[in-house]
Amino acid sequence: MAEREFSESTDRIVATEPVEVRRYATHTRINHWFTAALIILLILSGFALFWPRLFFLTALFGGGQNARYIHPILGVAACLSFLLLFLQLWRLNLMRREDVVWASKITDLLAGHEERLPELGKYNLGQKFVFWGMFWLLLTMVVSGIMIWQQFFPDLVSIPVRRWAVLVHAISAVLSVLVLIVHVYAAIWTRGTLSAMTSGKVTGGWAWKHHRKWLREVARRQDKPPAE
Amino acid sequence: MTDTAPPPTTAVSNPPVEPLSPNLGDGDVVLASATPNLPPPTRQLDPVAKLIDISKCIGCKACQSACIEWNDTHPEIGVNFGSYENPHDLTSEMYTLMRFNEYEDPDTGNLDWLIRKDGCMHCEDPGCLKACPSPGAIVKYSNGIVDFIHDKCIGCGYCISGCPFDIPRMSPTRHVVSKCTLCSDRVSVGQGPACAKACPTQAIVFGTKTDMIAHAEERIVDLNARGYEHAALYDPEGVGGTHVMYVLPIGDKPEEYSGLPADPKISAVVEGWKGPAKTVGLAAIGLAAVGAALHSIFAKPNEVSEHDRVEAGRMVDDILGPEETAELAVSNPDETGQG
After folding, report:
1. What is the ipTM for the molecules in this complex?
2. Could you say which residues bind [4Fe-4S] cluster 1 here (chain B) (predicted)?
3. Domain tally, chain B
4. Residues B100-111 pLDDT 10s
């Protein structure tokens, strides 16, 4: 078995006529959608408290008091869930030299000339940006969120610090929603991506076009050594 | 049908005895938290104020007792920690607190025992109301009283961050914030605040804000004549003035009165959070969502071509060889199936 540099141990070719590649294991997909569901609930309850016109959304949680109570608990749960996802994905999301070249030719990508971009492993810079963006924003939100968690940490920080925490929490929340819009729209615009998180599989053509180094390595890892 | 109670102009007179309907209603609300389209008030009441003349205060805490009794609060039994302050801080059950400070005049060496009755200042521009996310949980009436509506409070504690005077306190059991109401329930039926009613030296007086300022000016002239040359009225402009004011004998050093801020205003951080962070943030999210929608309609999607499919098959064939390729094509029927 060859060294793994661009792929996870669970990635493999599951069919050849046509080629199909397993990209995410079942536990990773469950982990992803569980995190996503929590984040959607966090956005609904959080924006209800951020924008008066959306306050009515607190009714989804059983009123203002309940929304206020559940939001930080959901937040801690989302962070723990994301942590599990992080442990599975961080290695292949580390920056690489080809990411810089890829970023410098981003206009070619948007213009439909992806062949002019370098070959990539499992993730491109956009995907890495979403990954690390969510990592740092969730970390910022959980730290600032605990500082303003009145019910359990009323005296953790002074009032001036608390004012900063509430501002940082709001700005991080806005930025994370922007990152999520990029995440969701990129998955829709790049046709053939969504199946990676539903069935767990992508087509060979998709893998060859967007993540060629990844496809090549997955294939090589499956190449049995010749019989003695 | 009962008559509406007249607004009180003093706390000392005995209240009317006939049944009267309250004079503070929805039509008197001039500001409400998280309510951008508040209907305009139906009338303008005369602004009221409570004036606390520190030079007359003897620190007896009758105001605290009256406050507890009228508001039916139940502060915990305190312990002595070497100060007359009891309890040690404002709590959700103690809306007003005598704060004691020993001050040595740097010029004369005289020791002054400074006693300040702390509590909500009823700001003209209330930071608590600005910070509150729950519609109508904090209201300001046209007479200047800032009131917390407990039924609508969600217990988030944002008002604690918003207040420049560190006044609101969260109940750890009921999860609602409390503070001095300026006895809005008494004022609405023609009576002055309980603390002012109970004060034995009339250090606390209540009436229209105009009357209270006039009274304070007399007191300042008297204090000036008795050696307090810096005596001043505390009605800070940074929060648009307040409806609880002090006569400070040492008016040039308000901080000496247990940290009374010299120039209180709503923190710029809170203004930024409730101002640009909200408008710019929501605009950015809206633009991003609209941009993505337009792009999906007008731009070509990034699709996999037949060429890509052929190349992928060729790459996999080359690496795996014909035997393994053929094996994989049939060996995992349960894992394929979704062409």
Report:
1. 0.92
2. 57, 60, 63, 199
3. 1
4. 999 998 888 999
